[in-house]
Design goal:
The complex is a heterodimer of chains A (about 170) and B (about 525). By secondary structure, chain A is an alpha/beta fold. Chain A contains 6 helices and 5 strands. Chain A has a 5-stranded parallel beta sheet, with helices on both faces. Chain B has 17 helices and 15 strands. Classes of the chains: A alpha/beta (about 170), B alpha+beta (about 525). Chains A and B meet through helix 1, strand 1, helix 3 and helix 4 of A and helix 4, helix 8, helix 9 and helix 17 of B.
Chain lengths: ~170, ~525
């Protein structure tokens, strides 16, 4: 137990303001305020892999590590679409996931938004449109925001989520 | 048969066994020793090989003209060799290998779904990769089938698959997925339970099938590497290296010394990142959040270096045919050294804490036990195999440059539980730290890509590399223009997923996440 405490104290807090963009920390603050005002302080995301290579998922995981710590802005990843405000969809939508994606959208309560994350979700990426893939999330469910990248870095991902929040009010 | 074969004792033994069961074959030797087996003797060949404990490694089919060439890769006493059989006319049917090698089952079903080669007398011939995106008389990998179809038909969900059933008083069933808990790839799990205890688990994959094998056809070798890096995002270097190796060996391309070292550096970095992440994940699944935060911290730092030095956090697109696309200067080399020594220390302290936690042992020891005999029957690879007495390691047993200059030390255990698989990963990380340090020392000056890339048309070969999940294959055949005619990547998960179904028996449902994480198979890597 002492070892754990010692380690926690010696490492300290590594959570940092988002690098690369000076205005970003400011934006984060604004959105936190916005979340407080329009979203009761928090927003819930369900990540949906519709056939990705798992690269995007690794970066979504990274978004929750101590460096990025999306929770501090009130962004939570939830286990069920029924608890979600946002669906974060990755992958070119394999045909085998088409129906599941449609159903997960139906299961998400209104108001809801969809983010297409990564090149595949936006335009099929390297897989494109073929006998086994639909080729973009937009062809299956309405998309509110896209976040390009292969995969998008956690920074890009967070920026995207914050941009979306800034565009909308939950009514 | 050809009696003049044999100067090698191991080969001699293989031939003896084939003769003993009167298997009709011819032998040739290209990159691998190859046995051409008569159609009717295909499963008997497997029996003969299994009798001397030959390990099954992979199986695929290739449509050549109007024939189907079915190929299996085997390993006997650390020597790889190939068995093939040619089906000259439809119906393409072949006696199944799965009753001898259960590991072959999913690959046979995949082969049937994509190419129409039907396994006969198989214990399980249900469809595997095919759901509802194409019909049972259509075979996407055949030449007649178009890459893209014009039909705008919405693909329905796959509700007609016949799962195994368990009946009896008190037995109930939990269907989970394809979209299941957390941030994870899609797959379906069907639990039959009695109270909390799992009686049977059946897995259904194929949800992320993206037509990778079909898309590969017609691509140039360098384009293929981009695709290979995206078979499983956590194994970008592994699959790209396997594909590059197959093409380079088929075309007799020798990559520069520096390039091979850099590939190994990238590959070891991938291994370390994934193992560290998974150790955190395993601890997290039994509620030890501290370890997860710390491991995620180390992984993040590691990935940031990947980005700043190699241009990509997951190291995608760092390989090309003939070498690598990234180089490091002296200053960057110093950064790598410094980082390595820092992470080594940090990791050791962390592991001291993790291993000193009795409540963690309590949750992980005896959980998800995979007996040695099951691991052997399923041909488990990497850490899953090595925690249950299956000692496979390509870097040591069939070393390719630069690993041929180093002794890769791997620990073998047989406790077979989650704790053991975690410990094996710790051992692998430590071995990789040492190896990485040696690789950085050994990094010679020179080119990072060979100046002479002459792709040999109409050639074929199998690339075999060690990924972080274990032995990884890539079969590649080039057409007469030097483009890809057939690509089959065999991720280690093909052989490890079936272990998950076995090791969950008699555990409680609530321990499924930690058992799953301890295996961590790739969904995308097998759905293709």
């Amino acid at each position: 137990m002492f070892k754990v405490l010692k380690k926690i104290i010696s490492v300290g807090s590594v959570t940092e303001d988002i690098p690369e963009d000076e205005t970003f920390a400011e934006l984060g603050k604004q959105v936190k305020t916005k979340l407080k005002k329009s979203f009761s302080g928090s927003i819930a995301i369900r990540a949906v892999d519709s056939g990705s290579c798992n690269g995007c998922e690794l970066e979504i995981h990274a978004l929750n590590n101590a460096f990025y710590d999306a929770e501090r802005y009130g962004i939570h990843f939830v286990a069920s679409p029924r608890h979600a405000d946002i669906l974060l969809v990755t992958g070119p939508v394999s045909k085998h996931m088409e129906e599941a994606l449609r159903r997960v959208y139906q299961a998400t309560p209104e108001p809801k938004w969809v983010i297409a994350m990564g090149e595949c979700a936006i335009n099929g990426g390297i897989f494109g449109e073929n006998y086994a893939t639909v080729g973009s999330v937009e062809k299956v469910i309405p998309v509110d925001l896209v976040i390009p990248g292969c995969p998008p870095t956690p920074t890009k991902l967070l920026q995207g989520i914050l941009t979306l929040l800034n565009q909308h009010n939950k009514k | 048969m050809n009696k003049t074969l044999i100067a090698n004792p191991w080969l001699n033994e293989v031939v003896e066994q084939l003769d003993r069961l009167a298997v009709e074959f011819t032998h040739s030797h290209q990159q691998f020793h190859t046995f051409n087996i008569a159609n009717n003797d295909w499963s008997r060949c497997a029996e003969a090989l299994n009798s001397i404990e030959t390990r099954f490694s992979g199986l695929w089919a290739d449509q050549q003209d109007n024939a189907m060439l079915v190929t299996a890769l085997f390993v006997f006493e650390k020597h790889y060799f190939v068995a093939t059989t040619r089906l000259t006319q439809p119906p393409f049917e072949l006696l199944s290998l799965s009753s001898v090698y259960p590991a072959a089952n999913r690959m046979e079903r995949h082969m049937k779904d994509l190419l129409g080669v039907k396994p006969l007398d198989s214990p399980d011939i249900r469809r595997w990769t095919r759901h509802q995106a194409w019909k049972n008389n259509e075979f996407p990998l055949t030449k007649e089938f178009p890459v893209k179809r014009e039909s705008q038909r919405i693909t329905e969900g796959d509700s007609k698959y016949h799962f195994f059933q368990t009946q009896g008083s008190g037995v109930s069933e939990i269907p989970v997925g394809p979209i299941h808990a957390g941030i994870i790839e899609p797959g379906h799990y069907r639990f039959q339970i009695m109270g909390e205890t799992v009686l049977n688990l059946e897995q259904r994959l194929g949800y992320t099938h993206k037509g990778i094998e079909k898309l590969a056809v017609g691509k140039s070798p360098d384009q293929l590497l981009k695709l290979a890096a995206r078979i499983s995002g956590d194994s970008a270097v592994t699959h790209a290296w396997a594909a590059a190796m197959a093409i380079e060996q088929a075309s007799s391309i020798i990559i520069p010394n520096r390039a091979s070292y850099l590939r190994a550096v990238l590959s070891e970095r991938e291994r370390i990142a994934n193992h560290i992440g998974d150790i955190g994940g395993i601890c997290n699944d039994v509620g030890f959040a501290f370890a997860n935060s710390q491991c995620a911290r180390l992984r993040e730092l590691w990935q940031r270096t990947n980005l700043s030095l190699f241009g990509h956090r997951l190291l995608m697109d760092t390989l090309c045919i003939g070498g690598v696309t990234v180089d490091i200067n002296e200053e960057q080399l110093a950064i790598l050294y410094e980082e390595l020594s820092a992470i080594d220390k940090d990791f050791s302290k962390l592991i001291d804490i993790i291993q000193d936690y009795p409540s963690l042992d309590d949750r992980l020891a005896t959980t998800g036990y995979l007996p040695e005999s099951t691991a052997k029957a399923l041909g488990c690879l990497g850490y899953v195999g090595r925690a249950s007495g299956q000692d496979t390691e390509v870097r040591r047993d069939a070393p390719y440059p630069p690993y041929d200059k180093y002794q890769v030390q791997q620990v073998l255990r047989n406790e077979g539980d989650v704790l053991c698989r975690l410990q094996i990963r710790v051992d692998e990380i430590r071995a990789s730290f040492k190896l990485l340090s040696a690789l950085l020392h050994g990094l010679a000056q020179g080119e990072i890509k060979t100046s002479t890339v002459n792709i040999k048309p109409a050639s074929e070969n199998i690339g075999i590399v060690s990924g972080w999940r274990g032995e990884t294959l890539a079969f590649i055949r080039l057409d007469e223009f030097g483009n890809i005619a057939r690509y089959f990547p065999r991720d280690a998960s093909w052989l490890n997923w079936q272990a998950l179904e076995a090791l969950i028996d008699n555990n409680i449902v609530a321990d499924f996440p930690v058992c799953n994480k301890s295996v961590n198979g790739s969904y995308s890597g097998v759905d293709l």
